[in-house]
Inverse folding.
């Protein structure tokens, strides 16, 4: 079965639109855990548009004692400290999550929209990856389904790749869908042959997830935006159960 990790960024985004702590990110994480999700994901950015450092710390306290739930912190490994944001790598080292997913985003991006070009950043990433792995943290790299880049991900020491599925999701219902699916399938097979695990995420939803989850080597999907939208329509518990049923 493919593991489901719920990204709570959008819950935090709604909270941040008002003063106070409503909706409560930790309470929503607990609801997800109670429904049997295998992971909780957050993407803390320096501008703190959604998840804040305090959320990361509190979620870590919630998840770390649990043997059946993994904490995944994703973000830009080069994000520096800003105000009370300690810097991405510093926050990861403090929290010691089971998994850290490195993503090549910046504050000008609305959301993550491409994978690493390791021809440019590979040498900079290698010592970061080695440092995190030495602390027992699994490291995944956010990657496009490009065979040359997948090979470089193995060379720089990644434990896993997270395939960027935005273009696949955008092609749903079009003639390009099968071509894009085959690219992801080939990338997943290559990553597996190189000794890396395979995760996936971005714009996966109840319509397009089942096909993508048919990739045999897929270990985990991270879903946040679509899950939040589905929760508005279905209720959060029903949405969680729908995703869990689909992945099972």
């Amino acid at each position: 079965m493919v593991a489901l990790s719920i990204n709570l960024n959008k819950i935090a985004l709604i909270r941040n639109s008002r003063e106070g702590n409503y909706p409560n990110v930790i309470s929503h994480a607990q609801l997800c855990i109670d429904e049997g999700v295998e992971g909780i994901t957050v993407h803390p950015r320096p501008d703190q548009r959604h998840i804040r450092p305090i959320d990361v710390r509190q979620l870590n306290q919630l998840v770390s004692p649990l043997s059946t739930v993994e904490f995944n912190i994703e973000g830009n490994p080069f994000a520096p400290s800003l105000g009370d944001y300690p810097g991405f790598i510093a926050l990861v080292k403090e929290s010691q999550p089971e998994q850290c997913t490195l993503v090549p985003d910046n504050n000008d991006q609305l959301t993550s929209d491409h994978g690493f070009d390791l021809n440019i950043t590979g040498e900079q990433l290698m010592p970061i990856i080695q440092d995190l792995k030495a602390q027992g943290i699994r490291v995944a790299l956010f990657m496009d389904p490009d065979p040359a880049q997948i090979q470089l991900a193995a060379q720089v020491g990644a434990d896993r790749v997270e395939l960027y599925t935005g273009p696949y999701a955008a092609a749903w219902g079009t003639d390009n869908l099968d071509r894009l699916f085959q690219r992801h399938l080939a990338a997943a097979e290559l990553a597996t042959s190189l000794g890396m695990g395979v995760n996936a995420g971005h714009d996966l939803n109840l319509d397009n997830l089942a096909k993508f989850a048919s990739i045999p080597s897929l270990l985990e999907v991270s879903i946040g935006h679509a899950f939040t939208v589905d929760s508005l329509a279905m209720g959060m518990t029903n949405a969680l159960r729908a995703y869990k049923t689909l992945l099972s």
In short: Residues 3-247 form a domain with the TIM Barrel fold (CATH 3.20.20.70).
